[in-house]
Known about the structure:
The complex is a heterodimer of chains A (413) and B (293). With 413 residues, chain A is an alpha/beta fold.
Amino acid sequence: MDHSRKMIAGLGSLALAAAGTVAFATSALASGSVTVGITTALSGPIAELGQTGLQAIELAAADANAKGGVLGKQVKVVSADSNLSPATGATNVRNFILDNHAVAIFGPVSSAVAVAEEGVAAKYKTPIFFSTSNDVKLATTNYTKYMFQVVPDTHMEPAAVARYLADAVGKKHITIATITPDYSFGRDTVASFLKSLKADGVNYTVKAQETPKLGASQYTSYIAALIAAHPDYTFMGQFGGDLVTLTKQAEGFGFFKHTKPMAMYGRAQLKALKGKVPAGAIAWDRAPFWAMKGPGMEKFSEAYNAKYHEWPSAWAVMGYTAFETWAQGVEKAHSFNGDKVSAALSGATIKTIRGPITLRACDHQGDVGEYVGTIAAKVNPKYGFQTYAHSKLIPAKDIILSCKITTAEQPKS
Amino acid sequence: MNLQVIVIEGLSAMTTAASLFIIAAGLSLIFGALRVINVAHGTLYMYGAYFMATLFAASGSGWLFWVGLLVAPLFVAAIGAIAEVTLLRRVYERDHLVQLLVTYSLFLILSDLALRFWGTASLSANQPPSLSGAAMVGGVMFPAYDLFVIGCAVAMGLALWALLGRTMLGWKIRAAVEDPETLAASGTNVKRLFTLVFAIGSGLAGFGGAVIAPLQSVDPGMGQSVIVSAFIVAVIGGLGSIAGAAIGATLIGIVEAVGIFYLPSWAPAFIFVAMIVVLAVRPVGLMGQKLGY
Lengths: 413, 293
């Protein structure tokens, strides 16, 4: 065997080794208990999203078990790392269902992984809940009746930001630059944002569009190009650690003195940036606990903080909601059967810590809005990070795609 | 393109080049002396960054930055030395496939340990107050910390040049590459020398992580994302050549900056195009030498 063959064989071995780094908790369908599985990113650059989602689902299961369980049965949670790989995610779902007898699946961070997991869950007629991945394809071209989404999709989120900006600038002409990761989520988000701006009648000109790779560690050349463009507003599609890196490096150039940044500043980024997020920046988050009113949210955030010694991320809030959705579906169906739970949830309104959520019968997309606001100048002393000074919920009815549009793209069979 | 834009684009390219060189230099040093492709190098870099971020989280004090710059490389060098003695020493005589699997295993083990110790949340290290502002260069405002990174890369390059070319240790390292048996016969403990080289290479990774930490998010994926760029730089420059790593990093920095300015949507691909062109013209890299196997 020559060197190149050995190398190919070696890389194949490495790939298999990576796929095999999944560890399952031992569990089986025992009398008096049922199992649910969560397969998500638990390692790598976006592990924080998956980990906090998992923690919230475990908390939700513990809360349900303390109240006597779901339909009288204690709920066990098994988890596995999807390694950001569609193949691994699909394998995890299959193993959960066949080996652990899981009666429901909670999905991943990456939409590419979610698509793979959605297909396997449907094959085994098992409900799957998406609380972080949000590609609109999950409820359209890849739709199955076992899928439920309690997160604003890739159309709703940028549409909400566009609506907020439209309200802020009125008829004034503005210039915009965009910088977003070079993959489908980033490109789709920017395209949807600009399309929504046009639909909302905003008079704008795009001055520059940059697409650094996902997980980039150096943005200086991109920032230099943005500075040369002199935009009034800069839409930053980065998220997680990428947004922290971009903000730190752009701040060093004084870039934010000349443009108003717009980005998805959530709990983790606000905490990591330690009060250095530019005050007045337009920010959005899918479920910022500090902006969401109601005793349910307050109780949840305090309980989460007490258990994990940190305030919940949006991924945690939505993970908890996903569990609530499944549990109420089971109660409504009086069964753990996937077909019955799916039928019970389709079109149903669920009571959650975020308030009531209706899952549309046409595509199982929850009518969840997006929170958009501006970054406060000072760190909130209770939470230890900047929150939003002014935030408003852009309601789902203003940004959700119509059932006519989504069903037209769904598989016909 | 006016003069101000040229200055800012030029400095940005140099910052990118400096960051890449800081990471790739240790990788190249280890390959040059030990002929080992260290896949775990990015993880060692991550440990340097975590060390710096942890130091800041514990104190929040600016002067600890300078302590971190000194201690982080030593901390990571110690990890590297332990890994060399316990794992890598046993596979020097084996083929590259085995070495690749061993360093990949090391990458997985170190990544998992970091995840357990530091968790999944992003950490952050502040810049020291003396370097946190902007400086005027050629009539444009440029981050002082970025200039510091460029300075660190130049200092590192000069230090490595002096180490390898002007000291007895450097002479022994070069002799060990050419003929380890003869070097051992002359009374040098080659095993200890290899441990030292691996520790120095690891320490450089740790230093890189500590320097770069205030510029970016410190999270579990940072080692993975950087290792590919470091390999591209090392391959373009010629694996094993420190001067090659410097030239490769500069080339990538310039190609990326020009690409971003003129064809932004294609910019990420330009780096790979540059690598393909260099390897097509000179398969051993710009400053590389054909290996004797």
